[in-house]
Amino acid sequence: MKLPAKLLEWRASIEKELGRLTGRTVWVVQLSASSFACGCTGITIFTAGLEMEEVEIFAPKITPTLREAAAELELDPEIIYASTIPGTSEVGSISLRDLCDECREDYMGVEEALPWSNTHILFIGEKT
Ligand SMILES: [Zn+2]
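Above are the sequence and the zinc ion SMILES. Below is the predicted complex in structure-token form.
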């Protein structure tokens, strides 16, 4: 399957899974393959209607779904984190990131949260 079709498929399936877990309507407004100037690559999932509290509660269930999606896209994320829209408790995006060497130095060893207060880490791990 080509990349655009995969992205469409995973956007829909992640939206469905988030809805199933929360028991509410959650929108995945956009799911993007991302590349960063530093060399990181990843997937960014832009959500609407999802609360950070729900991400924290459902992290053990959401994380495998996200990692599975990433594997389908041949990405092996070392870190998955959710960020709120500043000043709110609503999640704006969930990021899956395969780190470049520089960012790996910065992020690895950070257990609880990234240096930004609006971020919650769902997964951080060694490359498989
Ligand atoms: Zn980087």
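The mean pLDDT is 88.
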